[in-house]
Amino acid sequence: MEVGINPLVLMTFFPLVGVLVLVFLAPQQKKAMRWTALVTSLVTFAVSLWVLFLFDPNKADNLLVQIPWFRLAGVPIQILMGVDGLSILMVLLTTFLTPIAILSTWKAVEEQVKGFMIFFLLLEVGMLGVFLALDLVLFYIFWEFTLIPMYFLIGVWGGKNRIYAALKFFLFTMAGSMLMLLAILYLGLQAGSFSQPELIANRGLFAGAQMLLFLAFAIAFAIKVPIFPLHTWLPDAHVEAPTAGSVILAGVLLKMGAYGFLRFNLALFPQASVQAAPVIAVLAIIGILYGAAVAFAQKDIKKLVAYSSVAHLGFVMLGIFALNVEGLSGAILQMLNHGVSTGALFLLVGMIYERRHTREMSEYGGLWKAMPIYGGIFLVVMLSSVGLPGLNGFVGEFTILVGAFGSKVLGSPWFAGIATLGVILAAAYLLKLFEKTFLGPITKEENKTLKDLNLREIITMAPLLALIFWLGIYPQPFFNLINPAVERLVELVQSAALVLH
Amino acid sequence: MTNMIDIYSILPVMIVAGWAVLLLVVDLWIPRDRKGITALLTALGLAVALGFVLASSGSTILGFNQMVVLDGFASFLQVLFLVSGLATVALAYDYVQRMNINYGEFYVLMMFSIAGMMLMSQAYNLLMVFLALELLSIPIYVLAGFARTRLESEEAALKYFLLGAFASGFVLYGTALIFSATGRLDFVGIVATVNAGSASPVLFLIGAALLLVGFGFKVAAVPFQMWTPDVYQGAPTPITAFMSVAVKAAGFAALLRVFLVLFPSLSEHLTPILWVMAALTMIVGNVVALAQNNIKRMLAYSAIAHAGYILMAFVAYGNGEVVRNTVAATLFYLVAYGLTSLGAWGLVVVIEREYGRGIQLDDLSGIGKKYPWLGVAMLIFMLSFTGIPLTMGFWGKFYLFRTAVEAGFVGLAVIGLLTSVASAYYYLRVVVYMFMKPGEPKFEINPWVSFVIGVAALAVLLLSLMPWTILELASRAVLLLQ
Description:
Chain A is mainly alpha-helical.
């Protein structure tokens, strides 16, 4: 078996090589640690590009790895991993954001660099595993495993309230995943398998309990996304997390929830998904409006960006539960967009925080004059988050709204109609943010002497900016990657819906 | 020839007991400042017995006119008892010197107790069960008070002895009632009488319930858990580790053997009671642990909670289709829990400097920075207790919950899962103090203690990657149970 050369396995576990090297570095070799982590994550990114090269969107089981692990009470638990259109972009997003996030910590993290980098690389392993695992138990293992490094990143390197925020993050997610574990156990008992493709084939065996199972999975994922009203951990975690942690948290970890809906809820319980779609769509819309309203009221820049995530993820959920091709592919693209734009916003917030050690909007004003490069980049990223045509945010949101508008499952154009309000609100709070921090005269003495971005910071931002424009102007290659998988999924859900009516 | 087979069937028990008797004499010639030799000889005896257990495992023998049985179940547990005995010797070696309680009896008593536990796993007659129970308990009463003249230790010994004597009384009375119901004490005879329908059902049921009380006390199940925190806190820490692992396992050995063989016909009446016991044990253990700042007491309540998780799978003991998984899951979990618990108590042994001064969470501050490996090991134990993946604790809980769901006790599984979330809070507090609070801890770490902690941490981690090793042994033990 060519287990050793399977690029998926190599990619997922390569960061462990970096961890191993880091363990043996002496505490004062901070520079070597940073470079080790960066190089490791860059190699991982390179391997993920190789995966992309080998990837065939029309196949459901690209690069499938299937290794029997062991049997528990007769039911096999396998190392079953594969990549398809639902996961490929998430995988790339993970490997893309990790080196960027590591680069952003060059100056920001001075304490216990070794631990930080080790946890960061472990986190990457966990995230990649989540997106690639096709065995439910394996998925659960990776899912829970991501908790530990993130818990430490927030708890050790976070802000003032870090311990509270870290604990809240851990307990919220764990509470959700426990219900999911119960559902996984039940599925394994009923169907005699934990493999997602096999379970899809044998859906009839657990069709009776599908609404409860759907709920058990949905709650676990909804907490992660987060869907209103389960979002309360998010602002705490984001505000207290170090910049790199926020980038990964917003960029990738939240996507794990949305991805979970796509991979497991829709595919395993299509009828329940159809039945639950209007409810989730309503919650998503509440999330969009509520997130936007609360974001508007924030004085702390990082909190504002955190609440904007609630709103943006509301769009993603609306797209997913439109349950048609436009909605789903828009949602997946929007997941990527949000990862790029919000990740970039958190990085920018981190850069100004490193200089001034405050995130209060009132402390700034007129920054454009002191830091023109920073201001220019901020403007582009902010507009991409608003959804300006020509930038990435627009493509995703527009496709989602088209999907929601024409969705048979939701059955009413009002969902899309009200959600559109969210786009306007996003413009309101983000423009307000920009105006207060960048426009007008410089009001504070300290801000006059602020240094503009240095080369490392520009290098950190450049790939994100490139992607923002690329996605905004020519998104077709991305849609080509997603669409075949989405079409298969929609077909599956719709045939189930037919049975229902 | 029958005699030879009889002796063969309990050879490891005889080795441990005989070695202990000899050691008692030999110890007289070992000077007080050289008690390390006694420790070494104890370890040697346990290792020899371990060798014999491993050599004789795989055979099934009913010995001494069906008084004892040797089967996979017994062998599996005996390995567990002996290994935790060895670990306890390693934990105690330095500790007893530091606390100035380095008397040879310490090790000898422990060996007697282990002999009792091993016999318990083999007992196939209610009198043997009682005999084994006393043999394992009485040395522990003494050991709990081994640091005598220190109040905490004396309190622990007295409490444990009084309540333990009650528990023994329950077991004996239950045995008497079962004898009057069936006219037999041997398992084979009792089963035959019950199957023939000539047993008095009421007396039989009351007898079974009384046995449940007695064993419930040993495994620290609610409502028979009152003694646990005080005794765990007051006893010398290595003995606490020993109690939380080996004594608990011995209690479950008795529970499984007796109930699975004798009382499946009573499951209709006992299952609801067990259901409530399991639920209460998980809830009380975890909820009260939330409020503890003293680590010994926190771990004591956590030990109660873990008994609850095992009971959750045990509730279905009368369900013939599930029972194989009940046994395998219990054995597997006892290993997972045992490794984790030995490691965690090992850390307490490291930190504890002064007898009786409880260790507060504050004492852990800064460990992660100053002693990263110790911190990481404790992190692994805490995650394993919580049941987070990539630890043995995860697979242990996974299997227990699976068994509960398989038997149809979804409600109980939900209680278990929710209490697990609660438990994450207090286990993580340990992590918070170790890694996220500043502090300047200073320990002298004995190499034997760090060896135990290191091996336990590695085992918890590595065995989680290849759980089939233990799993296979645990599920093979089931086949030979009846």
